[in-house]
Write a structure and sequence with these properties.
It is found in: Cell membrane. This protein is mainly α. The protein has a single domain, classed as ABC transporter involved in vitamin B12 uptake, BtuC, CATH 1.10.3470.10. Helix 9 crosses helix 13. The longest helix is centred in the first third of the chain and has 37 residues. The chain is globular and about 70 Å long. It starts with 6 loop residues before the first helix and ends in a 6-residue tail after the last helix. About 45% of the residues are buried.
């Protein structure tokens, strides 16, 4: 406690730290659950032994192999991709000042998916490092196109028009993606599995290759936080406070491109995480007395999103054991009703 602070003031200052710490503890617990649960349940003590040394007894080597070869890469990928998708959604909602903004809803995910499938089936790109650049380009092109489409009309850009433009572009790109895949049956099975959105079947090498892109996007997103606080007061106020809005938007779009393009390239087009998580973060921040401060909202979104993705992944492993349901399918069940509720809260007369 600083000199002159009352216990009440010190408690208010500690609330954001406590909230972030609690969310981090939930994420750590879900990471342990992700390492322990699946088609074969592994006791937590064996998981800890596998991570710190050697699992004794019969079956110990098999448990180590499952933990290190399958579940550690899957869990790390879930955390990294979850952070990327949650930050993308929070950043897009702040930049557009639109509560319906989300990489999946606004066509960014579909743009990355279309470009990746195009590079694989038409151009013959076969490596992750090859087609990830197409994912970045597709994410950027789709976001620009949706933004320009949403500006058409006498009323200009409104949240609902932007969401409807994103849904239309997503449907168009998804149809084109399906048409391309159907003309080439060889990658069809791989695409069907990838398009459902899953954390499975990725080794540690793939995870390490994608992390630098996601880390760069995360740093750019976090650096936008002070400017986003100014932008939330209005463009005129932000400009009066010395913010260079063009530079802020360029930085934000670059971060979204890196985060969404990188995540989609590896786990597929998982939608609705970027829509749901920022709203959950704002509710928790409001109840904790933090308010709409993006210096705390962005880290909260970055922690809540992997919690949601890992929870969906773990649930998918358990409900259909020994098989599994992809995390993207479960996220659609969660995000669909949430999106409908959000749209119903808007003034549809603005459309």
């Amino acid at each position: 406690m600083e000199r002159g602070d009352t216990p009440v003031t010190a408690g208010r200052r500690a609330r954001p730290v406590v909230l972030v710490a609690l969310t981090g503890a939930v994420l750590a617990a879900l990471c342990l659950a992700s390492l322990a649960l699946g088609a074969r349940a592994i006791p937590l003590d064996q998981v800890v032994q596998a991570l710190t040394g050697h699992v004794p007894g019969p079956g110990g080597q098999a448990a180590e192999n499952v933990v290190w070869s399958v579940r550690v890469p899957r869990t790390v990928l879930g955390v990294a991709a979850g952070v990327a998708l949650g930050l993308s959604g929070a950043l897009m909602q702040a930049l557009t000042r639109n509560p319906l903004a989300d990489p999946g809803v606004l066509g960014v995910t579909a743009g990355a998916s279309f470009a990746i499938v195009l590079s694989i089936t038409v151009l013959g790109v076969g490596s992750l490092f090859g087609y990830i650049w197409f994912g970045f380009a597709g994410a950027l092109a789709a976001s620009v196109f949706v933004y320009m489409l949403g500006r058409l009309g006498r009323s200009g850009l409104t949240p609902v028009k932007l969401a409807l433009a994103g849904v239309a572009v997503t449907a168009l790109l998804s149809s084109l993606t399906g048409a391309i895949v159907l003309t080439d049956p060889e990658p069809l099975n791989r695409y069907r599995y990838w398009s459902a959105g899953s954390l499975a079947s990725q080794d540690a090498g793939v995870v390490w290759r994608i992390l630098p892109f996601l880390a760069a996007g995360t740093v750019l997103a976090m650096a936008c936080a002070p400017a986003l606080n100014s932008l939330s007061l209005g463009e005129d106020v932000a400009t009066a406070l010395g913010r260079r809005l063009g530079l802020v938007r360029l930085q934000g779009v670059t971060a979204v491109m890196l985060l969404t393009g990188g995540a989609v390239a590896v786990i597929g087009p998982i939608v609705f995480i970027g829509l749901v998580v920022p709203h959950v973060a704002r509710v928790l921040a409001t109840r904790a007395g933090i308010g709409p401060d993006h210096r705390w909202l962005l880290p909260l979104a970055a922690l809540i999103s992997p919690c949601l993705l890992l929870a969906a992944d773990i649930t998918g492993r358990l409900v259909a054991r020994p098989s599994e349901i992809q995390a993207g399918v479960l996220m659609a069940f969660i995000g669909g009703p949430f999106f409908i509720a959000m749209v119903r809260r808007r003034k549809l007369a603005e459309v």
